[in-house]
Amino acid sequence: MKEVNSKRLNATLTKQYNFDIKALLSKAAKLTKANFGALFQGSLVLFLTFVVLGVVAQQYITINADGSYTFEHQSIIEVVAICIVAPLLTGLYMIGVHQARGEKTTVFSIFRYLPLIFLLALTQLVNSILVQLGMMLLLLPGIYLYLATSFSLMLVADRKLTPISAIILSCRVFNAYWKQIAAIYVVLFLLFLSAPLTLGFSLIWVLPFYFSMMGLLYDELIGEQGQGTDASENDVNESSFDA
To answer: Has residue 241 been placed in a domain?
Structure first.
């Protein structure tokens, strides 16, 4: 397996990174403004994909007289949906990553990771199962797992990690700066709350900003591969998380 560490990743895991929330939010806003076209168009493609999947799934839902409903072939439809959505979602995240690195992107960049559909779908499926199990146990474990696995899709796409290795490394990165990352998620959550108040129009900016922010976070905390480090992938495969 390839060496996956970088100087930025080492600094993050050893808690030496200077995490400036205000500066990151400001930089993400500037990146969103400078690259709005690709981010907005990519978000629109993802939104329309959800709409189409919703229309298809609706055909298999039967509403009973007592108000309950029956969802035929639910498991199969959910797996197919994950296979379709996972590479597109990853493509949007990676648009944010590449823009944070100063690389040019277009709306077609969202389709760049379709060849990794199996690994990305498997990663997303494991993430979903972990979050659902966390929600069933207690609310906080579910929220933690949702936030902690945020970088896993990007790690599979950018570093070619296996789903389990990507999830573990994502959790380790989150654990190193969980307070700061959680604070950024609170800001993003508040921005998404503005959608009902603006009849959804705020999403025109909020969605591109979200993907720009996530891409920037990934690049700042993990960075590019092969930046001159002696660390090996043994760090990634550790089963214990750094708190």
So the answer is: no
Look up residue 241 and give its DSSP letter.
Answer: P
CB of 39 within 8 A of CB of 95? yes
Q: Answer whether residue 242 is part of any domain.
A: no
Question: Each residue's pLDDT tens digit in the chain (243 positions)?
Answer: 344 557 889 989 999 999 999 999 999 999 999 999 999 999 999 999 999 998 888 887 777 777 677 777 778 888 899 999 999 999 999 999 999 999 999 999 999 999 999 999 999 999 999 999 998 888 888 999 999 999 999 999 999 999 999 999 999 999 999 999 999 999 999 999 999 999 889 999 999 999 999 999 999 999 876 543 333 344 444 433 443
Q: Which domain holds residue 11?
A: 7-235
Domain count, the chain: 1
Q: Looking at the domain assignment, is residue 83 inside a domain? A: yes
Tokens 């400078």 -> residue: 34
Q: Is residue 27 part of a domain?
A: yes
pTM (predicted TM-score): 0.85
